[in-house]
Amino acid sequence: MNKLYIGNVSAEASEEDLETIFERLKIPHSGPFLVKTGYAFVDCPDEKAANLAIERISGNEELFGKVLEVAISVPKSQRSCKMQIRNIPPHMQWEVLDGMLAQYGTVESCEQVNTDTETAVVNVRYAAKDQARLAMEKLNGSMMENFALKVSYIPDETAAAEGASGRGRRGFNARGTPRSGSPGQGARPKMQSDIPLRMLVPTQFVGAIIGKEGATIRNITKQTRSKIDIHRKENAGAAEKPITIHSTPEGCLNACMTIMEIMQKEAVDTKFTEAIPLKILAHNNFVGRLIGKEGRNLKKIEQDTGTKITISALLDLTVYNLERTITINGTLKESNKALEELMTKIMESYESDMAAMNLQSNLIPGLNLNALGLFPSGAPGMGPSMSGMPPHGAHGGSAYGGQPESETVHLFIPALAVGAIIGKQGQHIKQLSHFAGASIKIAPAEEKDSIQRVVIIIGTPEAQFKAQCRIFGKLKEENFFGPKEEVKLEAHIKVPSFAAGRVIGKGGKTVNELQNLTCAEVVVPRDQTPDENDQVIVKIIGHFFACQLAQRKIQEILAQVRRQQQPKPTSGGQPPQPRRK
């Protein structure tokens, strides 16, 4: 039997009232309703009926002015390590879900439940009861991409045999049935990768790739189960045209190799004597990690595959086109192997970035990630167009809305990383400044043997976000932090001396709340002497999103102080001036 707990029941509600709701919604139940003060119980014939009741009634049905809550009834003695999470966004990637669950402990299994709903449902088992209890407290009712998660315990006796054996990736054990795509996609095969494969082909071979009346390209599409776009009208007169392939990683690889074979055959038929290297396009956000510190990652791929790989210069980038061209020279077999390794590296970087972004983006209210250009266009809803169209906000708009004021942040980086941030002949810092729309300068070293240097960033909140994000990412790419080590930096912002007390709060209450909320260390050094502008320093130490959230929260406090400092109009005086937005 599957017993349901019905909560938030009005004192006026009767067994007949609840039965009427079940009958109207065509939800079977196998016994009478046991109505208590404020709640009730009922048995359902099977798990499907219980899930249907939860889905249709919980949070959706009102009885005598109270919205009913429905969950599986689990006695306290059976509340152990297993829980069910419902209302998961249908397009959430498994990696994001894994990362969210792993925050609360070791996940031994995470298996999808097949339902008829658009949102996804998973059963999760933690290694310990306290971990499951913490996850229940933190996740139930929390918002994920505008969906409120619903979490309930699963009776341990009904699922004792579900334990998994063997260790899986990222500390997860085996999951039972294989998963693909996102929880909302169920067991259906994932037909499209999150990042399309983009390649460049010589313009003279486009006709051969398309074939007579499109027969060749249709055949490639059918055989590889891909969606292929040949951008013939882009860059009129250019020697090369981009092709975008949407498929699974394997489908992208097969389609790319088929196109290469067609071009080589056409070259023989037309007596084209020049070599035809494989050229692909990759978003600049991933290139640093492809190359690795001192080019180690790229050299290893070259050694493993017998190819020669070159990457276009940063100088070729514009704020509207953030792709770099990767050229692979080698035989078809060698190029295929190199491409497979490159695609794996790119996907790992993308999944890592997306997991962090999806988990943390809601920490900065109003931030429009579409305007930031941190991800390639193939990522759903992320990044600017790669076809030359300017991203949202490129003509004066802002990801934050309005016209926010400029801010100054001093970001401390390892002294050895200065060269990586500046780049050859200063090209990297110029490109970064142009991309972020911020002034970025490296302050001179205070001492000869300083182990840290200060990056001075001046710009709007959006510019700060973009610039600091790239700097944190660059330090990770260049291996200034270990592969499993989180990049944590110290940032200084200045606040008016009279406002420092507001940041600290009575008895340190505000600064403690800031630290709990942001996971950053926030310090207002005591006994500071204000500078010539009557300002003092606030230190923020943490990972990128922690630093960003702390900066935003402190700026909110300062804005509130400024509003309170504005003179109030007298009854006979001039009308109040509009507040600056």
Describe this structure in words.
The protein is 33% helix and 21% strand. With 581 residues, the chain is α+β, with helices and mostly antiparallel strands. It has four domains: 2-72, Alpha-Beta Plaits; 82-153, RRM (RNA recognition motif) domain (Alpha-Beta Plaits, 2-Layer Sandwich), CATH 3.30.70.330; 197-353, 2-Layer Sandwich (TATA-Binding Protein); 407-564, 2-Layer Sandwich (TATA-Binding Protein). The longest helix is centred in the middle third of the chain and has 29 residues, at 332-360. Residues 160-191, 561-581 are annotated as: Disordered. One of its GO terms (biological process) is mRNA transport.
Shape: flat
Question: How many separate structural domains?
Answer: 4
**Span between N and C termini?**
59 Å
The proportion of strand residues reads 15-25%
Put simply, the count of helices is 16
The CATH architecture of the largest domain can be named as 2-Layer Sandwich
- What share of the residues lie within helices? 25-40%
Unreliable stretches covering 5 or more consecutive residues: 158-180, 186-192, 359-366, 368-402
How many strand units? Answer: 24
Keywords: mRNA transport, Repeat, RNA-binding, Translation regulation, Transport
Domain RRM: 2-75, 81-156
Biased composition (Polar residues): 562-574
Organism: Notothenia coriiceps (black rockcod)
